[in-house]
TrEMBL record:
Protein name, per record: Glycosyltransferase family 28 C-terminal domain protein
Pfam family, one: Glyco_tran_28_C
UniProt cross-references to SUPFAM superfamilies, sorted A to Z: UDP-Glycosyltransferase/glycogen phosphorylase
Keywords, comma-separated and alphabetical: Transferase
Domain of life where this protein originates: Bacteria
Domain Glycosyl transferase family 28 C-terminal residue range list: 19-117
UniProt cross-references to InterPro entries, sorted A to Z: Glyco_trans_28_C (IPR007235)
GO MF annotations in UniProt: hexosyltransferase activity
Organism name: Leptospira interrogans serovar Pyrogenes str. 200701872
Length: 128
């Protein structure tokens, strides 16, 4: 993926592209594991910076698996700071994340919660 694709979103961002990753308040083990694997590749680290909100329940586990320079946060009550930092968001698809990313005009990849009792795969994404 070329950085030129993302330049239109925020030209103030420097050489690296900032990716905010969130699994929700409980975290998302699969999302965290995929991002940890991505961060282990030198070529990816040259182009992308990841900030991972792990969820308090998974912070220790993710800390042990990731590189020392990884930016891991267990919980934050200041999401504005993270959204302003980000060029792109990868997150669980909840109404809060949808509305917040829309407010900050952030492109996103949304991952549905696999164990949701009421699944409506088309409901939220039709709006966005």
């Amino acid at each position: 993926m070329s950085l030129k694709f993302f330049e239109k979103y925020d030209t103030k961002k420097k050489k690296q592209f900032n990716v905010l990753v969130m699994g929700g308040s409980q975290g998302a083990r699969q999302i965290n594991n995929i991002v940890i694997a991505l961060m282990s590749h030198e070529e990816i680290n040259k182009q992308f910076r990841f900030r991972v909100l792990t969820g308090s329940a998974l912070y220790e586990e993710v800390s042990k698996k990731s590189k020392k320079d990884a930016e891991l946060i267990s919980y934050s009550d200041n999401m504005k700071e993270h959204y302003e930092w980000a060029n792109f968001v990868i997150a669980r698809s909840g109404s809060g994340v949808l509305s917040e990313c829309a407010a900050f005009a952030l492109p996103m990849i949304l991952i549905p919660y696999p164990y949701a009792k009421r699944r409506s795969p088309n409901g939220k994404r039709k709006i966005f």
